Amino acid sequence: MTIETLFSAVNLSVMPAWALLILAPNWRGTAAIVHSMFYPLLLGGIYIAGLIATMFFGMGADGAGFTTIAGVRQIFASDMGVVVGWAHFLIFDLFVGAWEARDARRKGFSHWLLIPCLLLTFMFGPVGLVVYLVLRKVTGKGGWGLGEV
């Protein structure tokens, strides 16, 4: 498998989960697939394998690291580094989107209001989360305190 194919596979793998969150939020399959740990474990395994490949098997760029801007830039200077970084984003954005969906259901939040939040979380991560939290507060479906989340 080429790195380009791996990137495409990782990228496309989350599409069904997002479609289920948006189009079939109450289906048992959505709970079994999206709200389980299936995606974090699957993509997390790919992430870990890619991270090991970049760190220990020469698939990363020289000078990569987490303590300087130049070092972080070098993480993404290799194709495998891009796959690893992209998988990281996809895993956490989907995890947050699934949390938003579960929280919205628990709090009686309108699914029609949730859909834009999910789309924003899918495309822009924290933007969707912030919009969801603000809408939750404005609609009286949640607050800002830790006990409210």
Jot down its keywords.
149 residues; mainly alpha
Query: Beta-strand percentage?
Result: under 5%
Low-confidence stretches: none
Q: How many DSSP H or I helices?
A: 8
Number of strands: 0
The profile of the biggest β sheet is: none
Task: Briefly characterize the structure.
By secondary structure, the protein is an all-alpha fold. The chain has helices at residues 3-13, 15-23, 28-33, 38-56, 69-75, 79-107, 111-124, 126-138.
What does this protein look like?
The protein has 149 residues and is mainly alpha-helical. It has one domain (3-148). Helix content is 72%, strand content 0%. Helix 4 runs antiparallel to helix 6, helix 6 runs antiparallel to helix 7 and helix 6 packs parallel to helix 8 (126-138). The longest helix is centred in the middle third of the chain and has 29 residues, at 79-107. The protein is elongated, with a radius of gyration of 17 Å. The model has no long low-confidence stretch (mean pLDDT 90).
Layout of secondary structure:
Blueprint: H1 3-13, H2 15-23, H3 28-33, H4 38-56, H5 69-75, H6 79-107, H7 111-124, H8 126-138
Helix pairs in contact: 1-6, 4-6, 6-7, 6-8, 7-8
